[in-house]
Design goal:
The chain is an all-beta fold. 0% of the residues lie in helices and 53% in strands. A hairpin with a 3-residue loop joins β2 and β3 (44-48). It starts with 17 loop residues before the first strand and ends with a strand.
Length: 263
């Protein structure tokens, strides 16, 4: 693995892994073009080259409201990375200050459901972390954007196969991070909920490896699990500001992620 925590991708050392997956990319509801997912060791990129369309307005259902949107002349690519074992789908391009929501379907004509929180603020590329996505499976993602000038854009749906090279059996993430008060520890263990739970130990430690708080020690279900932390140490005292690590150890493997405590 390389890069900073929160931005790195998984690299198979010593393997020059390149794979190509072909899928369909639907632009709007009428135009379709060929898409490819290219896996090049550290990340996967979906690139679509749709035919140029005249600018036009199309209806967009957002929640229960009928809204109008503008179909973009060119569809940007999306990229798939693994952040602490959780797939991240990122819309490439600069959409700073836009509000956005991401939706996903399990088939081209299936219903779209929201992924993550809606009405997010884009600080550059727009992205979503999808812990429910499984390696080897194909999903259709759609990005709905509200630009600062009030215009609306829809990109996708993109057919994205989550590459196995990006998958990790164990992952951890802190939400929010940095954290002032309480936080949620999102723990991912490979497999589905139908698999048997596995013993897992989840701890918060300082940079010297000393235990600050033991969050969980016992069986934990496969998939994504959310564990709460009240911001206190083992003695019930508020944890001082600083950098800590969330550690996960299980028979499936181990994971570490940084936790930044602020005042």
């Amino acid at each position: 693995m390389r890069g900073e925590i929160g931005t790195y991708s998984r690299v198979e050392e010593g393997v020059k892994a390149k794979a190509r997956f072909s899928s369909r990319c639907e632009v709007g509801r009428h135009e379709r073009d060929r898409c490819h997912v290219v896996v090049d060791a550290s990340l996967a990129t979906v690139r679509c080259s749709p035919r140029r369309l005249p600018m036009k307005s199309i209806p967009l259902a957002l929640g229960s409201l009928a809204l109008m949107t503008t179909l973009a002349l060119a569809t940007p690519a999306v990229r798939v990375q693994s952040i602490d074992g959780v797939p991240r789908v990122e819309l490439l391009g600069d959409f700073a200050r836009s509000r956005y929501a991401v939706f996903r379907a399990t088939a081209p004509r299936a219903a779209f459901v929201p992924v993550g929180a809606g009405d997010l603020l884009c600080m550059g590329p727009c992205f979503v972390d999808d812990p429910a996505a499984h390696a080897g499976e194909t999903y259709w993602y759609r990005f709905d954007l509200l630009e600062p000038d009030g215009s609306r854009l829809v990109f996708g749906p993109y057919a994205v196969t989550i590459p196995a090279i990006l998958a990790r059996p164990v992952g951890a993430r802190v939400v929010p991070n940095p954290v002032r008060g309480a936080a949620t520890l999102e723990i991912f263990l490979g497999g589905s909920a139908a698999n048997e739970p596995v013993p897992a130990r989840v701890r918060i430690v300082d940079l010297q490896g000393r235990i600050v708080r033991e969050i969980h020690d016992g069986p934990l279900s496969r998939g994504l699990q959310r564990l709460g932390w009240d911001g206190r140490d083992r003695a019930g005292r508020p944890v001082a500001a600083g950098v800590y690590l969330v550690t996960v150890d299980s028979p499936l493997g181990s994971a570490r992620t940084r936790l930044l405590r602020v005042r």
